[in-house]
Write a structure and sequence with these properties.
The chain is of the alpha/beta class. The chain has helices at 9-34, 36-56, 78-81, 87-90, 198-210, 265-271, and strands spanning 98-99, 101-104, 112-113, 120-124, 129-133, 139-142, 145-155, 161-162, 165-166, 169-176, 182-190, 217-219, 236-242, 250-257, 261-262, 293-296, 310-311. The strands form two sheets. Strands 2, 3, 4, 5, 6, 7, 10, 11, 12, 13, 14, 15, 16 and 17 form a 14-stranded mixed β-sheet that branches. It has a three-stranded mixed β-sheet with strand order 1-8-9, with no helix packed on it. Strand 4 and strand 5 form a beta hairpin. It is globular.
């Protein structure tokens, strides 16, 4: 292709700014090449911006913090690591909590969802395993608002406790509405009965493949239906809290199923195997302050395995 020749003054006038712009770009490139310190400074600012952006949506890289309190980036120091993590210490509605005193609430009802089976992947995020669906996976309706299910992950031992009792593991089903507000459904697991979990049994092979492989992902062979993760007959505890990882954003609606699910010791070990050391990945419980925990009894009262909280009376 033959380049078009400049045939008039108008073309020449348009070409001059382009030449000047090219010259500026060359000068900028030369300046960066001559100043490695400046280039590194620009890179540092860019990475810091990315980290803040990730924190804003609750997807902070797991390499940015630790669960060991003795570490310089452990839970008691999260608030000091970044400015927008300060609420991890100063917040008054932080999670997790100990579920102890509750109010039986007659205005709560069974959980409504439109979950559906779909193709999913499992990712090793460094501190946990995350289950994610490739396409939409349904919604949860709370207080007339729809929350889309984003992902599911596990903590071992459990983050929430009931009357001071900590369970072997806890599954978080993380949802988000159109305004980016979060709602989390929590399922507690116990090995006390010695019965395996079908859900965990189906996923353990993928946990094992991903052990020690941070950020690696495996496709799940069969479709995964999140509807089977929630026992519709179970009661639940409802309160307002926060994300349990930095930036500890508050305003999260928590729903903790009161019926504890069974799991085998081997399955719990697999849940903890993301980094081969099987270290805990649970944040310590936080002060409840003036918050009220509401309780919906559900239809299967006899099989509620969680210790029965003291009831402050109906609301």
């Amino acid at each position: 292709m033959i380049p078009r020749l400049l045939t008039n003054v108008h073309d020449v006038a348009k070409a001059k700014p382009q030449s000047a712009a090219m010259a500026r770009r060359r000068n900028n490139a030369d300046a960066l090449a001559a100043s490695p310190t400046l280039a590194l400074a620009i890179l540092a600012v860019f990475l810091a911006f990315c980290a803040r952006s990730a924190s804003a949506v609750g997807s902070t890289p797991h390499s940015a913090f630790s669960y060991k309190d003795s570490d310089p980036d452990g839970p008691s120091k999260w608030a000091t690591l970044q400015k927008d993590w300060a609420i991890c210490d100063s917040g008054t509605e932080q999670s997790p909590i100990d579920v102890a005193k509750v109010e039986v609430s007659k205005d709560l009802g069974p959980l409504e969802n439109t979950y559906k089976a779909g193709a999913a992947t499992v990712q090793n995020r460094g501190h946990d395993f995350m289950l994610n669906w490739k396409e939409g996976n349904g919604k949860l309706t709370l207080n007339g608002k729809e929350y889309t299910l984003l992902q599911v992950h596990w903590h071992a031992p459990s983050e929430h406790t009931v009357n001071g009792t900590r369970f072997d593991a806890e599954m978080h089903m993380v949802h988000e509405d159109a305004a980016k507000e979060k709602a989390v459904v929590s399922v507690l697991f116990s090995t006390k009965a010695g019965k395996p979990s079908k859900l965990l049994g189906d996923l353990v092979p993928y946990f094992e493949k991903l052990t020690g492989k941070q950020n690696a992902t495996e496709e799940v062979k069969d479709a995964v239906d999140p509807a089977v993760m929630i026992d519709k007959a179970s009661g639940y505890y409802r309160y307002e809290g926060s994300l349990t990882t930095p930036p500890c954003t508050e305003g999260v609606i928590w729903t903790i199923l009161s019926k504890v699910s069974d799991a085998s010791a081997e399955q719990i070990d697999a849940v903890k195997s993301e980094d081969k050391t099987e270290e805990p990945n649970s944040r310590p419980t936080q002060k409840i302050n003036s918050r009220v925990i509401r309780y919906y009894e559900g239809g299967d009262k006899e099989s509620t395995a969680a210790p029965g909280p003291r009831r402050a009376g109906p609301s």
